[in-house]
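Entry
Fold in token form

___
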Amino acid sequence: MTTIDSYNPADPDDLVVSVPAVGAAGVSAALAAARRAQREWWGLGAAGRSLALTRAAAAIEAAAEELVALTVREVGKPVGEARGEVARTVAIWRYYAQAPFAAAGEVHEPAAGQGLLLTRRRPYGVAGLITPWNFPLAIPSWKAAPALAVGNAVVLKPSSEGVACALRLAELAGLPEGVLTVVPGGAEEGTALIGGVDVVSFTGSTWVGRSVIAGATERGIPVQAEMGGLNAALVLPDADIAQAAAHLANAIAGFAGQKCTATGRVIAVGDAYEPLAEALAKALQQTPAADPAAASTACGPVINRQSLERLTEAIDSARAGGAAVLAGGARAERAGWFLEPTLVEGVPAGHPLLVEEFFGPVAVLLHAADLDEAVELANDTRHSLSTSVHSRSLDVALAAADRLDAGMIRINAPSSGVDFHLPFGGAKGASYGAREQGQAALDFYTASRTVSVLPAGEY
């Protein structure tokens, strides 16, 4: 029997959980149970679903410290960020607990004659969710909670490296049997899930996301996919350099850069280059890779050996091509998969660090002569999720925002960060399909039906 083993990235000898992969047969059984349960879940009505989600939020909140410790241990998230994720998870469930009472359609005037013309939104049935390890509680929640709120049942396949968090989250939610089911596994289980659900939501790597999109579109079912970003930060000469450096260090090194909204390219405009290079290198040096359980830690380990090796090989390759490392660049001298936060300049054009998302605490520093060149550099990627702009001039910042391709633009703030009640998603190859979160999520997990009601007899 294949098992899913999840290890602590800060202590690779620490096995967090080992569970059987359910296989295609296990996914089929979960789908059958979900389809049966969905009818009763939908039949609870708005009040029943709202109460169930409210109770789920309360249970998650009551287990907050347990979940913080599990998140630190399973994915190496620094404890401060882990507390923030748990608090966000509770808020997500509470937010969507009110959604069952939201209007589910509109009434329109008929084009001619008497009658009633209306639209109604109804759940698809069973939603299949495929989620990553980096936000092992928040991302499953911001997918599952809206899907459940509008009346779907959910089958969740989490990343193998976040499976303990997903299993505990579902257990704490305490929903009726079959309404929220976790199916541990890998590619086999993911393929089986896509083959049997009514709607699919995915977050993860680009290459897996493309296969998810292909499988769903072949079946003709709705699909959304979030596939990361190679995000840029533009720093104008009039910016507060110290503040910008602090924001950038947070977006590069926070949680070891393992966020799809992390900054991978820093574009200094004109005279901002030299002072920013100095300030940012210093800020990163003051953010060492350290024990994620320590309150002072911002940068913990990367998720596994393969990730660490890929990052160090890319840095060494850039050096060999003539790049200079201004900060970090080496594995930290401690057990676990730790890489010091790294800033590199002079990276050759076309190097992987400039075209691929590496998901680690590494950023490339670039120079642009003016705002036009900076915008051109920022837009020169297929992974346009989040871009930050740093300037004291609101006019300049807003002008830049109008020209940037990214799905999210943050002014005088880190590129990392998400408001869970607003639409979330990127541009170009970063995203596919509808947006996540807020009202957009409620729309995605429902189908619109137009209903015409005419008088039954003469009038």
